[in-house]
Amino acid sequence: MARRDQQLYRDDEDKKIGGVCSGIAHYFDVDTALVRVLFVVFTMLGGGGLLGYLILWVILDPAPPGYWSAPAADAPPDIVDVTTTSDAETVDP
Question: pTM above the 0.70 mark?
Fold first, then answer.
């Protein structure tokens, strides 16, 4: 799910060349391979993909460290499985 406070960045953690496709994939919450294939297709259909990639590589800032793994501000907290035991189940050594 895309984060509401999300900005478009290059992804330096999951990059093949410059991290542009990976950053776009994270932003739109789609598979990275799909975005990479689309850039290759647009490149083969007239070079627009290569030009667009180069422009985005220059314009987009790299993501801050840990940006992609940080939870969203409005995301619910993770539920932790906490098992409680009663005094009757506790065994003293």
Answer: no
